[in-house]
């Protein structure tokens, strides 16, 4: 077998690729309208995650902290949650949903967040806010389990679990995008529109690409409403694009409400987008329209200019969230490229048995490594000490110094991408995403040819 | 009554004592807001935690060190690559960060053997680095791992390495400030006095409370070297671990940031009798006075005077060019702690702007005391302002620019208030004479951005001009200036994009050589 799947062979982490669970839950929470997450833990667990997300989106949004201090760590801090909920409700009149997101500290001290919610519902909400629609839910995301990816997955499930109700079929599909960018949402919505499919797009962050308005009044917020979440129990199907970023919610809806769940594929590249459209068509009976044949053709036209001339056999390393990395690797193979190293964010034991990973192991005919629970040292050590040669790196901004120090061109993709302008605005999914990705990769290689004076004259006549 | 009550905070009455407006004829006894108290849960404060105060703010600028956090991976990831403290060893400490990656089984069974294995792995991966700092986090503090014991074991097994342990979990205090204190004292207790430094000058200082944001430290050390002063160590920006172990041999502690590092200076005075001199690298006057004070302490004020004269002649005209154009511009000041008072007066005096508010994230009452004393009548002072209070204040004060962090900067952007990064700077360094001009330049560029003007135009309602294809900053800033000022032959800042590169290229030969005193002279 040429493609090996292994767990990182060190116990520690040198330059982490991912952050911890509460960050994923926080990213989900900003996709919900009239919602402010209350993270139960130290203040850094919120302050830095808000900084991280705001660096990526170049936008602001609200997430609160229970501000765990020493006394709470010693004597229990449930009172901080009670006070935090009251303060939020009193100061944000539009607020309807408060997910209480736990962290390592409050899980270790064993605060009974579910119990606090019951207490608040029977006490504070009934007494002080009797006429107000308020929903509290607990999201347990201890930092010592999983990663930001599993935190996203858990939070999506918990939101759906909290709100979904069975009603008469609403004729819509649930569409769980996973951890994507505003540009991805726009692209996915356009695919759905062309297919004439009515969908509830969940944890929808499209409007985080928002304007400065002349009166200074614009505020970015998520677009998924409580009604949307309630209606997930009445849908015809659930489409989960990213297996590890919404899969749990799909399973829940299938089990509880018998709503069939379609997991994947992550629609990166032509082939995976084709597959998604076919599955959508099969589920809804809607035909794939000519407009999408044309849009697909535009992507193929762009790719044909580039793939066999410039991209073929280029060696690439890819890191980040597992679904993204696998999707990108599949697309790269279709583009005749040779992914050498895939670094999958966390220690999720399911990755080894992922059918897409199995397929890579079966068909890849050159040495490829897939490392789980990986860190950036898995990449850098191979380049620095073990002779790994790369033409391109695909991944998020935290790996920027590998690219800079070893002079390997890099296309920023995933989360976060704070060191390049505007990337949240562009899709990597769908046909639009395929076009954008292939052109970004080509331009990165072109710039590198010129920078290193390596056959830069090739482009004289292209 | 000087307290300022925000409409948005009426429902949390305890907030009322955290904001004041400085009134006419009022002194600090009647207008000092409360500070450094526990944060109100759910208020959406901008504060961080004591772990970040120790690891992210004070610890990590130390350059030749493996910085490893003992806990789940998030604390490490989140505090990595979010600051601009550079170093002259190719930014090792900025580029590499380490986490022991504590998982659930370690929470249950303990994580000490995990830590030990991690330490060995990290030293093995970077054989050229022999120094390490271990930071405790919430999780490992709560499970009670004995980090010091593990560090001692490893030091016994690897005699060529040295390890510093900082026990400052995230929950230890109301904000990052608690972590500043903890790491200061821990360094002093564990490491100071364990290396004997080589003394090469008659004038030896520690430069304390300086974090080399965008090269600030290198700018300041250049001045000290030009004065023939040996900078034994910098705590901690661009600082070296072993140099900082020799802090006890300095003649003077020169303290820049009295919020984050006065603790170590005060203890060095008690334990080693080293006096403390507070200085300020921001602003021509404050910096000049600071260099003079240091010069006076050693009896070499002539060397300071020469530097001040040279730098002032070079940079003052450019500063004045900006000051004429920034006159009366309204500034909101929302830094972490000490810049509140480092900047409040200096930018008013030297750049002509008007400071309309001073906020602090994690400052103590002492910071507010100095900040309010240096601010004008009518200034709004807020301790730990939260999201809604900031927005309410922006609407009320209508500033021309706000100096704050990245994320609150995004809030300001939407409200059409330009922002400058108060913590990491836009295009620093801001210390030094040239740096101060760079700061003025950044303010000017923000305030007079032609795009800022355009963003206020509602093309659906307003009558707007169509006669120009472009507008320059100068057209905007000079419109209401007196003719004499408009005719200035200057065009603003003329320095380089990266002024630090030239400093790093300097060798000993580029600095004046001063005779050492003989031993009998030194005894006098």
Automatic annotation (TrEMBL), chain A:
Answer whether the UniProt record assigns the keyword Oxidoreductase to this protein: yes
Claim: Oxidoreductase is one of the keywords in the record? yes
Q: Which Pfam families match?
A: Oxidored_nitro (PF00148)
Q: Could you list this entry's UniProt keywords, alphabetically sorted.
A: Nitrogen fixation, Oxidoreductase
For this UniProt entry, the molecular function terms from Gene Ontology, in alphabetical order, are:
nitrogenase activity
Give the EC number(s) listed in the UniProt record. Answer: 1.18.6.1
- Matching InterPro entries: ChlB/BchB/BchZ (IPR050152), Nase/OxRdtase_comp1 (IPR000510), Nase_comp1_CS (IPR000318), Nase_Fe-Fe_bsu (IPR014280)
| Domain of life of the organism encoding this protein | Bacteria
Tell me where in this chain the Nitrogenase/oxidoreductase component domain is found.
20-445
Q: NCBIfam families per the record? A: anfK_nitrog
Family, as annotated = Belongs to the NifD/NifK/NifE/NifN family.
Q: What is this protein's record name?
A: Fe-only nitrogenase subunit beta
From TrEMBL, chain B:
| Catalytic activity, as annotated | N2 + 8 reduced [2Fe-2S]-[ferredoxin] + 16 ATP + 16 H2O = H2 + 8 oxidized [2Fe-2S]-[ferredoxin] + 2 NH4(+) + 16 ADP + 16 phosphate + 6 H(+)
Keyword set, alphabetical order: ATP-binding, Iron, Iron-sulfur, Metal-binding, Nitrogen fixation, Nucleotide-binding, Oxidoreductase
Q: GO molecular-function annotation terms?
A: ATP binding; iron-sulfur cluster binding; metal ion binding; nitrogenase activity
Q: Which Gene3D superfamilies match?
A: Nitrogenase molybdenum iron protein domain
Q: Which cofactor does it need?
A: [8Fe-7S] cluster
Q: What EC number(s) has UniProt assigned to this enzyme?
A: 1.18.6.1
Q: How does it assemble?
A: Hexamer of two alpha, two beta, and two delta chains.
What this protein is called in its record is Nitrogenase protein alpha chain
Underlying gene: anfD
């Amino acid at each position: 077998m040429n493609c090996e799947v292994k767990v990182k062979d060190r116990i520690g982490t040198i330059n982490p690729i991912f952050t911890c669970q509460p960050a994923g839950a926080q990213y989900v929470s900003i996709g919900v309208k009239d919602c402010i997450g209350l993270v139960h833990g130290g203040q850094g667990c919120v302050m830095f995650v808000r900084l991280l997300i705001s660096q990526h989106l170049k936008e602001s949004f609200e997430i609160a902290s229970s501000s765990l201090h020493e006394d709470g760590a010693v004597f229990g801090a449930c009172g901080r949650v009670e006070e935090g909920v009251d303060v939020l409700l009193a100061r944000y009149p539009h607020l309807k949903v408060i997910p209480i997101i736990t962290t390592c500290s409050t899980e270790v001290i064993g605060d009974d967040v579910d119990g606090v919610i019951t207490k608040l519902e029977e006490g504070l909400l009934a007494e002080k806010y009797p006429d107000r629609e308020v929903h509290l839910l607990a999201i347990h995301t201890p930092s010592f389990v999983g990663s930001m990816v599993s935190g996203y997955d858990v939070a999506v499930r918990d939101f759906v679990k909290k709100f979904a109700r069975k009603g008469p079929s609403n004729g819509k599909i649930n569409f769980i995008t996973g951890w994507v960018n505003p540009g991805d949402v726009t692209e996915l919505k356009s695919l759905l529109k062309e297919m004439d499919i009515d969908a509830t797009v969940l944890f929808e962050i499209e409007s985080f690409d928002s304007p400065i308005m002349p009166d200074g009044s614009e505020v970015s917020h998520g677009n998924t409403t409580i009604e949307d979440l309630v209606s997930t129990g009445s849908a015809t199907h659930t489409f989960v694009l990213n297996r590890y970023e919404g899969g749990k919610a799909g399973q829940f809806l299938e089990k509880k409400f018998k709503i069939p769940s379609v997991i994947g594929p992550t629609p990166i590249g032509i082939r995976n987008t084709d597959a998604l459209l076919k599955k959508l068509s099969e589920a809804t009976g809607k035909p794939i329209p000519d407009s999408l044949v044309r849009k697909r053709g535009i992507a193929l036209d762009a790719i044909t200019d580039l793939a066999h001339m410039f991209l073929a056999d280029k060696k690439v390393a890819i890191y980040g969230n597992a679904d993204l990395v696998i999707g990108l690797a599949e697309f790269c193979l279709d583009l005749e490229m040779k992914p050498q190293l895939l670094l999958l964010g966390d220690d999720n034991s399911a990755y080894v048995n992922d059918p897409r990973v199995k397929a890579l192991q079966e068909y890849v005919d050159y040495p490829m490594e897939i490392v789980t629970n990986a860190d950036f040292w898995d990449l850098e050590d191979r380049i620095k000490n073990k002779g790994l040669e790369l033409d391109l790196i695909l991944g998020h901004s935290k790996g920027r110094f590998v690219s800079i120090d070893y002079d390997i061109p890099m296309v920023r993709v995933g989360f976060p991408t704070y060191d390049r302008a505007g990337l949240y605005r562009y899709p990597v999914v769908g046909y639009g995403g395929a076009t954008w990705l292939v052109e970004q990769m080509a331009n990165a290689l072109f710039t590198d040819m010129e920078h290193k004076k390596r056959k830069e004259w090739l482009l004289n006549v292209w | 009554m000087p307290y300022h009550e925000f409409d948005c905070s009426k429902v949390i009455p305890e907030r009322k004592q955290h904001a004041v407006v400085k009134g006419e004829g009022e002194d600090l006894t009647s207008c000092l807001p409360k500070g450094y108290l526990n944060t109100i849960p759910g208020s959406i404060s901008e504060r961080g935690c004591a772990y970040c105060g120790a690891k992210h703010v004070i610890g990590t600028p130390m350059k030749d060190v493996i910085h490893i956090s003992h806990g789940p991976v998030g604390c490490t990831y989140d505090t990595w690559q979010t600051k601009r403290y550079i170093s002259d060893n190719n930014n090792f400490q900025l580029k590499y960060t380490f986490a022991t990656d504590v998982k659930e089984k370690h929470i249950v069974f303990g994580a000490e053997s995990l830590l030990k294995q991690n330490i060995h792995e990290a030293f093995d991966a970077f054989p050229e680095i022999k120094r390490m700092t271990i930071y405790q986090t919430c999780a490992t503090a709560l499970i009670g791992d004995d980090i010091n014991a593990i560090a001692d074991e490893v030091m016994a097994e690897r005699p060529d390495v040295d390890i510093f342990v900082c026990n400052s979990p995230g929950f230890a205090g109301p904000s990052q400030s608690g972590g500043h204190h903890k790491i200061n004292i821990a360094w002093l207790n564990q490491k100071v006095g364990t290396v004997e430094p080589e003394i090469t000058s008659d004038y030896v200082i520690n430069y304390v409370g300086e974090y080399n944001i965008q090269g600030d430290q290198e700018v300041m050390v250049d001045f000290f070297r030009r004065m023939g002063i040996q900078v034994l160590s910098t705590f901690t920006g661009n600082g070296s671990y072993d140099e900082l172990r020799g802090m006890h041999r300095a003649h003077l502690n020169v303290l820049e940031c009295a919020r984050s590092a006065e603790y170590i200076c005060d203890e060095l005075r008690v334990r080693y009798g080293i006096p403390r001199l507070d200085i300020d690298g921001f602003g021509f006057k404050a910096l000049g006075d600071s260099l003079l004070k240091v010069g006076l302490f050693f009896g070499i004020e002539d060397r300071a005077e020469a530097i001040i004269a040279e730098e002032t002649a070079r940079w003052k005209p450019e500063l004045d060019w900006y000051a004429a154009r920034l006159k009366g511009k309204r500034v909101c000041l929302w830094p972490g702690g000490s810049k509140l008072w480092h900047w409040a007066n200096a930018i008013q005096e030297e750049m002509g702007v008007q400071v309309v508010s001073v906020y602090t994230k994690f400052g103590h009452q002492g910071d507010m005391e100095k900040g309010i004393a240096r601010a004008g009548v009518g200034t709004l002072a807020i301790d730990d302002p939260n999201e809604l209070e900031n927005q309410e204040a922006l609407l009320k004060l209508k500033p021309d620019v706000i100096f704050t962090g990245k994320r609150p900067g995004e809030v300001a952007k939407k409200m059409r208030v330009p922002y400058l990064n108060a913590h990491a700077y836009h295009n620093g360094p801001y210390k030094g004479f040239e740096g101060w001009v760079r700061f003025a330049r950044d303010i000017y560029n923000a305030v007079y951005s032609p795009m800022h003007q355009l963003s206020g135009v509602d093309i659906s309602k307003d009558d707007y001009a169509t006669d120009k294809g472009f507008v320059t900053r100068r057209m905007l800033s000079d419109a209401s200036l007196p003719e004499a000022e408009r005719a200035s032959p200057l065009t603003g800042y003329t320095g380089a994009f990266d002024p630090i590169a030239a400093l790093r290229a300097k060798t000993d030969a580029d600095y004046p050589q001063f005779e050492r005193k003989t031993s009998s002279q030194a005894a006098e």
